[in-house]
Amino acid sequence: MKYMNWLGFRLATALLVAALPLAECLAQNPFGTPTTSPPAPVAAPPADAGLAGAPTNAPADSAASPTATPDGAADQAGAVGPAPGESSAPGKKEPVLPSGPSRRLSIHLGAQRFTYAEGGQVLRTGPVSSGKRGYGTPGGSFRVLSKQRHKVSSRYAGPDGRPASMPYAIQFQSNYFIHQGRLPGYPASHGCVRLRGSDAQFLFSRLRPGDPVLITR
């Protein structure tokens, strides 16, 4: 009997010792599952992160630098002259002119002369040299399509064998231009209308894309 009491005491003591860690765990988490500290919140990057100072993979600008365009298909693709009120030379303002319909250039092929008027008032006249036989200058009503200060021909060569220079070129139809050139006193061009240097510069500074050009015979 004494031995049984001693054995029961030892068994109760062992059970008590084994139950102590479980009691501590239940006291900390009554649901019986181990707990872990929640992860610390990570601050979101600013909205403009990566925009300032970070390299980007954006494609390079594909626009090519403007170059002088020979006459032909490239001109028909839309090489346009300065907008109204702008200069063909960088940094230089052209004079303020009347509205488009009041500016008019007339070219008389029979007389080989041009007349330029604004608001019905003639401001300048002068000689021209139009297309020779087989290369006639077209007649009719046209409009200025484009202007190019420095232009060379893609079809014809000058006396030196190089592409013919066509300064102060004013396009009025397809491959036909009004520009500075040699004036022998008779039709001698390949279809363009040649002017004296001073006249070419004057018309280049006054005419704008869209202005009327009348060519009569």
Provide the descriptors you would attach to this structure in a database record.
single chain; 217 residues; alpha+beta; L,D-transpeptidase catalytic domain-like; 2 domains; nine-stranded mixed β-sheet; two-stranded antiparallel ribbon; 3 helices; 19% helix; rod-shaped
Report on the structure:
The structure is a single chain. The protein is α+β, with helices and mostly antiparallel strands and 217 residues long. The protein has 2 domains: 1-33; 73-216, L,D-transpeptidase catalytic domain-like. It has 3 helices and 11 strands, in the order ααββββββββββαβ. It has helices at residues 2-28, 73-76, 197-206, and strands spanning 103-108, 113-118, 121-129, 140-143, 146-148, 152-157, 163-165, 169-173, 176-180, 193-195, 212-216. The strands form 2 sheets. It has a 9-stranded mixed beta sheet with strand order 4-11-1-2-3-10-9-8-5, covered by helices on one side. A two-stranded antiparallel sheet has the order 6-7. Residues 29-39 and 42-92 have low confidence and may be disordered.
